[in-house]
Amino acid sequence: VSKQVLERVLRELQPLCTAEQRFIEKFFQLSQDAADPQVLEVTGHRAMPLPISLLALLFFLRLEEPVTWLLSEIFSCLEPELRGFLDVCNKFHPFGCLQVLVTLSDSIFEKWGSSSALPSSFLNTVLGNMLLLAKSSFNKCIGTLCKDIEEAKMPSKMKGGILPSVSRFEEFVEFSEEMFRTARRRGELDKAHLRLASSVFSSIDSLSSANLKVNTDMVMMENFYHIHCFLCRKKINCLEGKKREAKQRYSEHMEKYVIKYLGQPLEKLNHFFEGVKARVAQGVKEEEVSFQLAYSKQELRKVIEKYPGKEVKRALETLYKKIHKYLSPEENLLPVVWHAMEQEFIRQYQEFEDLIQRCYAGSGITMDFTMEDLLSYFNSITLS
């Protein structure tokens, strides 16, 4: 509503100021040569001689842009009234400054591009001042929003899901893109988008120091994934870099999340082979690792015996249920995360097999389950 009212006000200002300007120029003959103002001709009347004092005033005014000066005197209340009106428009909606900025910008550039419009430096000056005021209000609004997002405290009982700061960012982008859909220029909006996106990313990063009841990497992964999907749908040029960054960030946190939780199904086996790799890194020859008491063939067999195929499958099922419980269903990240876990599990399995071949060659020691078994476990869990 405020946008429509403002558009109407601006539409009616142009002809009003133009008509007054034409009258002034005609009445005072201000469009003629300033060096020869001898008479004032009024339509329908004979020429009348001008008093010396008026001649002097007109001569002075012609040197000082008299039309603009006279219009500013006639419409002296226009700029203060417009300022007050814009203030009301800004308060009408949380993002009312956006509507004001777009409406003013389009109106001004439309007038500048119109060949039929009579140029009025007075009106241009007034509208230019209003545009500067609108930009200032818009920047203050964005600054406040950025501060609110960055300083927002995480809900104490948060169990995952999308952060309020991310939702506020989306709300602003949706509203602003609709407002600027037909706008001729969007430089100010692009700057605002980048500022807000940086603030949202900082807000998500602050989770690393928050005392959450759920896995921090999971929450950060979900939120960066959500932002990436949102920006993919919106296709905003200035945010292409942020879209790529969001994808990179959610991939990083998903990797951390997967690695942390994958250590659980084969925790002791994983711990054993981490020790094997550490000994090799310290300079122990691969063929001599089995002579280390803690990493002997007998110790390896004991660890492997703790992970028969049935137990591994049961552990994976438990892990799947846990992930399903905490991941937000709205994001549909479960298939993505589970596939990443499958790939990481396969990588670990292949690494374990490789270490057995290199460090325990000829021992005949093998895992209790094969690669085919492992793939069937994941497949059956996914389909269940």
From TrEMBL:
Residues 67-362 form the Exocyst complex component Sec3 C-terminal domain. GO terms for molecular function: phosphatidylinositol-4,5-bisphosphate binding. Transmembrane segments: none annotated. GO terms for cellular component: exocyst; plasma membrane. GO terms for biological process: exocytosis; Golgi to plasma membrane transport. This is EXOC1 protein. It comes from Thinocorus orbignyianus.
